[in-house]
Amino acid sequence: MEKDELSEFLSKARSARYPKDSQIFGQGEKAEAFFLLLDGHIRVLRITPDGEQIIARYISSGELFGIAQAIGRDTYPANAIAAVDCVTLSWPGKLWHETVEKYPTFATNTNKVIGGRLQETQDRLLELATERVEQRVASALLKLANQAGKKTEDGILIDFPISRQDISEMTGTTLHTVSRLLSSWEHDGLVKSSRKKITVIEGHRLLLLANGMQDKDR
Amino acid sequence: MEKDELSEFLSKARSARYPKDSQIFGQGEKAEAFFLLLDGHIRVLRITPDGEQIIARYISSGELFGIAQAIGRDTYPANAIAAVDCVTLSWPGKLWHETVEKYPTFATNTNKVIGGRLQETQDRLLELATERVEQRVASALLKLANQAGKKTEDGILIDFPISRQDISEMTGTTLHTVSRLLSSWEHDGLVKSSRKKITVIEGHRLLLLANGMQDKDR
DNA sequence: CGAAGCCTTGATGCGCCTCAACGTACGTGG
DNA sequence: CCACGTACGTTGAGGCGCATCAAGGCTTCG
After folding, report:
1. What is the pTM of this model?
2. Which residues of B touch A99 (CB under 8 A)?
């Protein structure tokens, strides 16, 4: 897409602000628009008929989301909730098809985005099926630190509020087990955490845990 | 794509036969080609560094697979193994990009294919995280019967050889647990099975199990 | 006809969920 | 700004679902 084409495309966008904990769209709702996250972090949830939920992924700024049109759906497949105050751009759904027609690279690029998410999801499936809770939680922390980490004097802080419950919903376990793990890791100096805040201190040792190695410094 | 364009595209394909249990491509190999399954069934495996594996999906005839190029990868993300004797068409990888450029619908269609697989994978993730083994195995059988079922006088036969081990690798459990479940279901008349062969007899009762309901006919 | 691969079934144990109770930080309204 | 309520976190006790270990039977194929 050329510069002026891009700016024309951008000019059709609507900007919006979502306060922390507000819902941007809901699972099953008619997909009226697709989004680009300008600032903030978004939690993508999938819910079972009987109310249990898991966190499918976190969206960071710069990512497209809610692109139901791209995969030929007319409803959103998940909930999107602002994890912090967020700023988005959005376009009406029908503009997707027009844009794809005009700029074929748009479609091929989307392939890569969706393909990447497919990969990621399959990796998690493999993890969930073959690894123990401790490894999965360690992996999740590392991934979060990687995706949304902020360097501090203590270590790498995950830069949005995240509860034990959230982590349990990312890893298929309970908040109790997560709490116990974090307590034990904090005791051993691997992480530091307080209410809705987690800092990774010794990433390399966490990585050993994630890979199922014994931590000999224990 | 128009008729003569399609036939030109098809004329560039190479046809191949893969005997049962042979490998079509391997995880991590350079992706030289992409494939269309004309006849047969293919098992797609993902393997962990330490040798454990899960079945990501089964491909049925008519489906594209091994489309690493589409998602911007240059290696295959999984193993593809012929579950029965298979016939495929394949095209050199670089033809993907040319084709996409020439026929933009190709890219948008691929979006739908990949999007559908993403959905499916996320559904399985949700299942694996929230449901018990019994429910997952019941779901897997129903899905298989749906995707590759053949009506027989007894019920719906899954139309390719599939072992207890295979089912366990689809559902994140062990062959022992699967064996026990199938035995008990056979005893109750829900299924009928022998070596590498499974027939679903009472789908509706299996569905109840898959949804976590009590089976009151037990 | 033997050997390998697949399936079955029991016994045992443990990883993690569940249930329960209490401590602690946060923010909201008086 | 303090008091209170609510949401979040911690920690223990107990139990169960399912993996693991073990041993033997059956089917298929060379």
Report:
1. 0.94
2. none
